Amino acid sequence: MGRRRLFAVLLLMVVALAAAASASARVDADPLAGREWWLADIGADRATPPGPGIPIVIVDSGTDPSHPEFAGRANTTFLNGQTTFGGDEFHGTAVASVAAAPDNGVGIDGVYPQATLDIFDASPTSNGITDFTAAVGIQAAATHCPAVINLSFGGTEPDPNLQAAILAAYRNGCLVVAAAGNNGTEGSPAAYPAAWPHVFTVGASDESDAVTVFSNSSPGMDIVAPGVDITGAVPLTRDPSGYESDFAGTSFSAPIVSAAAAWVWTMRPTLTVSQIGQLLRNSARDIDKPGVDAATGWGLLDIPAALAAPTPPNDPGEPNDDVPQ
Q1: By CB neighbour count within 10 A (0-12 exposed, 13-18 middle, 19+ buried), where does 241 fall?
Q2: Greatest CA span in the chain, whole angstroms?
Q3: Catalytic residue among 97, 152, 251, 283
């Protein structure tokens, strides 16, 4: 057998062994793991998540650093001070837990339990997340690309400074994932940042693998992920148990995808930011009309398929780019 052919055979054996290793089943032992129907739905139960690697950056309302899911969590960095006292400031804690709650014997397991997790509080007061503070958080994350930046918020008024921060993060090699929005029953008005180019837009699906009625439809939809009947951590000041169930919204679909993206990217670190996005699209499971559609994009997130899919070409352009983008 010639040397080139022998090398090709050995390379295929290595790829096959790596795929087999990644396909081994994970074990979720935390007490509320039985409620996490979404892990099996996206194939997270059919592969073993890696150790810390490509960071997940949560830019949201504050996350409760005293919560058992985050107090003492390894590879966790709070990029600024955290506040969780406002009425809606449970949101960041829930989003972060769905993505990366550790396997620590309490509560839930995140999609990627051992992820490197960076958290920025874009809601320093009880008035909620602002475009300005979100842009500051994205700028902080963009100095440490590659990373996956999760944005589980949106509004109908586009802010050019927020868009500029996102474009800078993309140019630096970060994947920016955003919730599509929850106004599907109101005509799906354009929601920002999800509607901008170079944002990976995520809609919501249910236990039957159907798109939810509230999930925005959009020509820029990339994929969908579970977004109903979600159990997540909440600040202890909101609920002494530390957990609530029945969360619904694309806000929770986005961190599921962000965690999956960081997982796959950690396993396949040579991918560029455009390739990891294309890989997630190409490997998604079609659940609606055949082909790409505005409700589900390319389909439902599928982690094992993304781990095994061939590397796509590196194409950073998008049809609606202008010269600065």
Answers
A1: exposed
A2: 69
A3: 251
Active site residue 198: no
Exposed e or buried b per residue across 1-35, where buried means at least 16 C-beta atoms within 10 angstroms of its C-beta:
eeeeeeeeeeeeeeeeeeeeebeeeeebebebbee
Crossing angle between the packed helical segments 91-100 and 250-267, to the nearest 10 degrees = 40
Nearest 10 degrees: Cα torsion 105, 107, 111, 116: -70
What gap in Å lies between CA 317 and CA 31, rounded to an integer? 44
pTM, 2 dp? 0.91
pLDDT digits (tens, 9 = 90+) for 63-108: 999 999 999 999 999 999 999 988 889 999 999 999 999 999 999 9
- Active-site pick, 60, 64, 131, 206: 60
Active site residue 103: no
Contact 172, 145 (CB under 8 A): yes
| 26 CB-side CA count, 13 A | 25
Asked if the peptide bond before residue 319 counts as cis, ω within 30 degrees of 0, the response is no
State the Cα–Cα distance between residues 297 and 221, nearest whole angstrom: 5
Bridge partners, 204 (sequence order): 225
Whether 251 is a known active-site residue: answer yes
d(CA 305, CA 162): 33
Catalytic residue among 30, 64, 67, 91: 91
